[in-house]
Amino acid sequence: MLSARLALLSRDEDSFRQELKTAQLWTARYFDAKSNGGARMLIGLKKLAASSISIALPDISPSLQAVRNYRLTHENAKGRAMKYLVWILILFAAAVALTTASHNPAYVLLVYPPYRIELSLTLFVMLLLLTFVFGYGLVRLMLAAMQLPTYVRQFRLERAQAKARELLDEALGAFFEGRYTTAERAFRARDGVG
User: Fold this and answer.
1) Is 110 part of any domain?
2) Mean pLDDT, to the nearest integer, of 48-69?
């Protein structure tokens, strides 16, 4: 029995069962198996041999996932700080370039006979950038307007699915509560929505 106890503590199921079989044989051989105590001992040993000693280890995957999420969040925070630093450097570089360009005496001459337009280089570059930003915004606006029917269709579909899900929940709740007419009405309403 000591060996069976050690096998149980070390979770060695084969050794545990073998030691219990040996204990059953010794009990049957050296004790009266027909007596009340001997019969109870054999029944107890059989029950122990039939039981499983394997212990299901807890699943640690949710904990590992939480650690991974924390690490990703932490790494993303570092990446965001670096992104802000780069943007600040770009802003300072643009300020220096603008200051340098504003003291530039150069000019741009646009000629379209009989017209002639003379602009400072700084004003020309600013107008060029403004034209680019305006054009980019206009293109984005046109793309968004072309995608609008798809977005509206998707929104309506999701809203109809949510309404059908809500009616189904109401119908099932009424059905399980025993309110069958309310459940039938809710199912019919759901069929009309879905």
Assistant:
1) no
2) 78
